[in-house]
Amino acid sequence: MKKPIFMLMAAGLFSFASCDSPAENQTEENAEQMEDNAEDAADDMEDSADNMDDTTAVIE
After folding, report:
1. How far apart, in whole angstroms, are the C-alpha atoms of residue 26 and residue 15?
2. Residues 33, 38, 44, 46: what is their CA dihedral angle, to the nearest 10 degrees?
3. In the Cβ-directed half-sphere of 5, how many Cα atoms lie within 13 Å?
């Protein structure tokens, strides 16, 4: 009974070791690139908002 259990455990370890694939890596890189682009767009919008003239009236 020990041999089949150890064989199944070894097969399971090999299946987990083979999970990393080029397609998965490309997907992760694309997601990181999209996140970076979104952060850059948000920074640009924030900078544009900071550079706008203040047209509000000051009430004293």
Report:
1. 20
2. -140
3. 2
> In the chain, what is the straight-line distance between the N-terminal and C-terminal CA atoms, in Å?
88
d(CA 23, CA 18): 13
The yes-or-no verdict on residue 58 having pLDDT over 80 is no
SS3 label, residue 14: helix
Q: Is 21 helix (H, G, I), strand (E, B) or coil?
A: coil
Instruction: Kindly report, residue by residue over 24-54, the tens digit of the pLDDT.
Output: 788 889 999 999 999 999 989 888 888 877 6
Give the pTM.
Answer: 0.53
33 phi and psi angles, rounded to 5 deg: -65, -40
Distance CA 40, CA 37 (A): 5
